Amino acid sequence: MLTTSLPGGTWTLGGLTVTRFGYGAMQLAGPRVMGPPADHDGALDVLRTAVELGITHIDTSAAYGPHVTNQLIREALHPYPDALHIVTKVGANRDPQGGWPPARDPQSLRRSVHENLETLGLDVLDLVNLRLGDATGPRPGSLAEAFETLADLQRQGLIRHLGVSNATPEQVAEAQAIAPIVCVQNMYNLAHRRDDELIDALAGQGVAYVPFFPLGGFSPLQSSVLSTVAARLEATPMSVALAWLLRRSPNILLIPGTSSAAHLRENIAGAALALSADDLAELDTIGR
Q: DSSP code of 91?
């Protein structure tokens, strides 16, 4: 059984036990998530530090770079420790302008799964999320053909577990009618709380919720309430935001990204911040 001193303890994704505090590898690629990192050795150091600190949940995608973050993960960590679980996503490609055109037809999805296997150096992917919507957020529409394709690849033994990303509640339910899912990965943080009801529903089902952009992403969280609470606690606003997410619901798993090992350590320390009932009530006003 995995034990950890990381904040939040652990969660079980299907049969995979992971630390609730994980690491998102997107920022290891170059500007706009395109091309190689400016500091190659520094990127490897971040990944190795994550594992040394006990993180067992790393999030990536073949679209990051493209292929850059997967290649860095393989270079830094392969052969992978038994306890480490790498989560990837499919459903979008990259264009020369740095855009994210959808790639959810069956042929594209099969190709992307095989690209992830090859670049990560794996025979089977622990967990694959189907990316839906677009850069502006979830969009309504059926995911049946795409998700059935991933379910077929799961039956072939290439994928252990499935999830969805950037999805509406209706799409989550549609996916669950096709095959079991172990996580939903959507944008969520103190200031963007559209998925409050979904998080609570998933918690009741034992399904993880993994917020991307937990600190606001390319536009860091800014709130006078957040700053006030942080000042009172003599902490950074980002520390408070991470600690709040871990307290929000036990099924929330964190994957904050960084290209700095020092910043990674700061994020871990920040997520361990103790928040009082009054702190939580005050913070709860931000996104409502």
A: S
